[in-house]
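INFO batch 0412 | record 1 of 1 | parsing
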Amino acid sequence: MKMRLSAVLEELAKTVVRASTASPRPVRSVLRLEDLIARSPADEDPGLHSVEVYEDQGRLLRLVKPGARRGKLDLVVGVDSSSRHLEAPAADLVVATVYSAGWRGIVDYWPREPLEASGPPFILMLRNTPEASPPKGLPVATRNPAGHEYGESYSIHQALDEARVQLENWMLERLAGTLREGSVVLVDGSIFNVTVGFLKGSGPAGAAWRELVRRRVRMVKMLESRDIAVVGVVKRIERSRLLAASDRVRSLASACGVALHGEAGDRVVLNQAVTGCPTWRPGGILASPKLLVRHPPPGPERIVEYVVVPPGRYQRGPAGSRMYRLEYTERSLELLRSWGLEPVDAAALDSVARGSLEPVSIAWCDRAARRASESLRRYLAHQLLGGGASLGYSTGLEVRWSGGGEGA
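INFO prediction complete | emitting tokens
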């Protein structure tokens, strides 16, 4: 059965309006501490992993000529998602979208018209009252990926993260059936989303995150079994501390006059390295040694390396440079090398070689997913307001005046 996207949103809005009328007093508190200090999925806790050099290049940063090698690469496809939330008395709602695109345009996206019943839920409902129950057949989830009910105490930020990762996992499964061998999938963010919530989280939220990571590992292995490499591109590295956690990296930094300590953030390390270890040449980009990151079971292993892209062909220094982390498995590294490439080559072919400081396919998916999720939220919000339901203070301000709030 196929459904119209607008009809789904309108039916959901009617459900929330009816529940709000039956139970006008909101159960969820207006402001909760756990939502304000929610931990981002990109966070890395140095006490929960071990870091060692996977391949020693003898220096802290090596020079890479972008676009110098094309190899047997067939296609680079980016994947990114976006989620937004609405606060209403009867239920808090999360809407999410996901896109994949490559050098030849859009590959796939969700949700799309007409909605197929086999597609994944793209709306999460955190119910504050039992009356807020969505009609059967709508792509709306009231339980998290581990099967636990979204209760009144469930963090909205946790739900936002879950919605994005769920849709990205679905997209990876779709790409496994459509891409040809010799392709590379660039996923925005960490390849496995191994976070503190995965390793130490308890209760429904911890169980949900562990289930999402298990699914991600399964999807990555599925793609790799079809000779499709997968690389995560982490652009927010301010709060991770992987580089300074390696004794060998600290030794390489010390050799060029850069003193590091174990608590130094990755961006701080790279800023100092770019200034103190002059290996750059005009037109080149810089890459760190490959590091092997291990987590306590059941956390999957991953290889990471950092890339520094100067702001211009004849410019150097940390000011204006883009810095991000590439993450991949040993199998994806083997695939890329069998095609005559390194992971940094695949990222460079989709960024610097195309006149951009970061992968173009991910940037395009990011913009498209943000526009789509904001459009869905605004349409749903206007349906709620038109039906007589009230919105949370921050949600109301964003919908009425800002033209869209910030979010991933």
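INFO post-check: The longest helix spans residues 360-386.
INFO record closed
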